[in-house]
Here is the input.
Amino acid sequence: MHAGTPHRHGGFEHSHPHTGPHRHWWRGLRRSAEVHGHAEHGHSHGLIHDSIRRSSDGLRAVLLSLGVLGATAVLQAVVFVASGSVALLADLIHNGGDALTAVPLGVAFALRSRRAEGYAGLAVVAAIFISALVAGAESIRRLADPSPPTDLAVLAAAGAIGYLGNWIAARIRTRAGERLRSPALIADGNHARADAYVSLAVVAAAAAVAAGAPILDPIIGLLITIAILRITWASWRTVRDDVHGARHHHHQ
Here is the structure.
């Protein structure tokens, strides 16, 4: 065999055993591995491994959407400080807590672990379900004890900011999730979409009270709760199959 025979590929000279297929890795954008033969062997030249590229793309999407949600929270905090609205503070804390579901997903991408990604997806589904429970409980409380919000313009502005930020984050996560075939990232996109609905409910509630129909406030909240429960179910079905597949692959 020609073990260790030096040879060149472009500007690179190196040696390795020529006993079968092997790969060369060096910097550059990924291209499809090309298999070609030197007198007595064939080998392939990949550039960046798929899992590395997928990991960096997934992390980029998670961090970008977190940046958007962070900016949204800062804007809402500015509005809160200006108004002192307790209702807005509750929404701010809720959005901040929800943004944390991106942390285990980011860690899973960094570890390049499909199994960890699946479990992160389950955490996201749980967070969406909790959002639905919180929205439902708050709506029922307002039905039983109507207390129309004040500072309507401030509430509407904060709700609009929350809706826009969450909608952009949802788009980033969903598109990246579809491109990377990541059910967990798609579920996190659904999570941001659910939060966008909650923020939209804040705007709708302010409009209802301003129009002299405060009873619409809790009714809108209940409709939003139903919408979030539907998102929870769709996300669960998406993530469940992924977790099952990851477990099956792990045991093989």
